[in-house]
Structure formats: structure tokens, C-alpha cells
Amino acid sequence: MFEAILPPGTGNVIINILTILGQIAVVVGIVMLFVAYATYFERKVIGHMQVRMGPMRVGFHGLLQPIADGIKLFFKEDIIPANADKPVFYISPVIALLAAMSSLAVLPLFNGFAIADINISLLYIFAMSSIASYGIVLAGWSSNSKFSFLGGLRSSAQVISYEVALGLSLVGVMIQAGTMNLNDIVEAQRAASYKFFIFPQIIGAFVFFVSALAETNRTPFDLPEAESELVAGYLTEYSGFRYSLFFMAEYIGMFLMAILGATCFLGGWSGPGDHWHFYVNLLIVKGDFYWMSLIWLMLKVGFFIFVYYWVRATVPRYRYDQLMDLGWKLLIPLALFNIVLTATIRIVLKHDLINVFIKAVS
Questions:
Q1: Is residue 298 within 8 Å of residue 110, measured between CB atoms?
Q2: Angle between helices 10-49 and 240-265 in degrees, nearest 10
Q3: Domain count, the chain
Q4: Cross-strand pairs, 282
Q5: Per the omega criterion (within 30 degrees of 0), is the bond before 220 cis?
Q6: How many CA atoms lie within 13 A of 9 on its CB side?
């Protein structure tokens, strides 16, 4: 009936649009569920590490605490400084949140599932993470507060420094996989004898994890907030729902870095049970839904997130000079060394130069 009214091929276009919208709904639903309860599990994990109970009041063992916090922030009074640059003040948290959420479009949750399966997935993620820093910098500048402005400046310097180390840490993975597509990187690890790139790329994995902590402003690299000296950094003049948008962006960034690390170094959605899958015909996935693949990925992501919490509970905050020294004098040289080492080994193995050398000597 619709084909008689609409131009030929319109039905396929509508189906494709609905498919993409369905995929977006699945990814956003998973991420929002993570954001809602990441704060709860963080408080619980750190509480038990410090011999405390964590949230216990709202619901069984405090399970409804994230919902109560969300309702409180939604209805809390929204105060705006009188001399603030109001348009920039309004848009800054939105920039931070949208940039973080846009990066989710290229993440493969299981085999063949990504909203946008593009060949330059890693470059796209780096571009979006760079844009996210504008939200923090503009928030500090538009607040018309010295403390907020200092927090914004610190963030810009920190992000620029550790963005370089983060990008260089993944070059070794790109060399080994021969691609920047995240799904192909997982397939390259499945085809390799050692399965996970973390074994040959242990230096890159170390640089990536430390840089990911700094990129998401997590302890011990939370200098942009640094509440002991800057009140709350770039967030000082924000309240209510806008205040929560920055934390949503931060926890989405944590999820993004965890899934990126799991994909590039721990095999992503692959695992011992790749062949144990249950077929569920869903429009949003155009075929088979690999439950085991999704479970393996979430377990690896959970491991990364747990280490995030572990570091926060045990490592004190760096001084700002220590922060810069670590990035420029240690992590970037290590990442460059890893690139040279990986490229050299790959060339030697590809051309079998060891046997050529032995034959030449003999």
C-alpha cells in the first residue's frame, strides 16, 4: 500500500532510519543505565575499601540512591551568576555531554553491532574527546569566577597533554591490526595466537590507562576540579541539573575509555564462549544477537571501571607540576618508544629478516 504512494525505495530508507534509531536507543539505554549506577557502585566499592558501608538508606542497600539523587538535582534551584556570559554558560554542559555521547556511535558492543561502523573509528573518538574539553574550558570562562577560570585553564592544559599520550598509545595497536576500525581490531586479536593485544602492547596499555584517567579528570588527575584548592573548579558556579550534566559527561567518558581499552587491548567482545550465542531476531541488530559477546565485553569494561575506583581509593592527587611532568617526560616518550619497537618487530617478522641475517652471516 505504501509503495503505491511513496517513491520507489522509500520503504528501505524508512527501515534503515528506524534501524539506526533502534541502535541509538539500545546504546543510549545501556550507557544511561551505567551512568545511573556507576556512582552507586563507586561509593560502595570505595566505602568497602575504606571499611565503610557506602549508601544504605534509600532502598535495599541503597540501590535506589541514584534515582533519589537524580530527582533531587532535577528539582534543585538553578542559580546563574549575574555577570556570567549566559549563552555560553547554558551551552557548555551540553557541549561536554553531546561530545561524550557522540563518541559512542562507533563502539562495537558485539560482532557487527555499531551505530556507525567507519574505517577511522579511533580518529573519530579522538576528535570527539577533544571537543568535549571545550565544554569544560567554556564553563570556567563563562562563569566569571577566578576559581572556575583556573579550573578551566588547568583542564585545557591537561587534556592537550594527555590527548597526545592517549593517541600515541594506540598507534601500536593500529600497526599490529593494520586498521583503525574497532571491529576489525577485535577480529585481528581473535586471529592472533596470543588473542589479546595487551601482551605485545603492555607498554601501550600502561600509557593508555594512565592517560585515560587524566583524560576523564579522574583521581589522581582531577586537577580541573581540585576541590581542596579551587572550591570545585570549573563547576563552582553551576547548580541543579546543569551541574549533573558535567558528571554525566564524565561517567560516559569513563565508560568510553573502558570500552575502548577493552576493545583495543583485551579482545573486545570476543571470549572463550563466542560460539555460545542465542539467536534473537530483532530489527535493531538485523539478525543475530550475540549475548555471550556482549557479556564478555561488559565483564572487561567492569574490570576497567573497578580499577578506576581502586585508584581513586588508594592514590593521592598529584601536584600540577607532577601532572605535567608525568605526561610530557614519561608517558609520551614511552608511547613513542612503543611505536618504534612495534614497527621494528613487525618489519622484522614480515620480511623474515632474522633468517636473512643468519643466512648472510653463515
A1: no
A2: 100
A3: 1
A4: 287
A5: yes
A6: 0
pLDDT digit string (tens) for 177-231? 888 888 889 888 888 777 788 988 999 999 999 999 988 888 888 877 776 676 7
Q: Which three cell numbers stand for residue 15?
A: 527501515
The position carrying cell 595466537 is 193
Query: Do 203 and 111 form a contact (C-beta atoms < 8 A)?
Result: no
Q: How far apart are CA 88 and CA 152, in angstroms?
A: 14
Rounded to the nearest 5 degrees, what angle is found at the Cα of 170, between the Cα atoms of 167 and 176? Answer: 145
Task: Give the domain range for residue 117.
Answer: 2-361
Burial of 96: CB neighbours in 10 Å, binned 0-12, 13-18, 19+: buried
- What's the burial of 8, exposed, middle or buried (CB within 10 Å: 0-12/13-18/19+)? exposed
Cα separation, 245 vs 98, whole angstroms: 10
Provide the whole-model pTM: 0.84
In SS3 terms, 299-357 reads as HHHHHHHHHHHHHHHHCCCCCHHHHHHHHHHHHHHHHHHHHHHHHHHHHHHHCCHHHHH
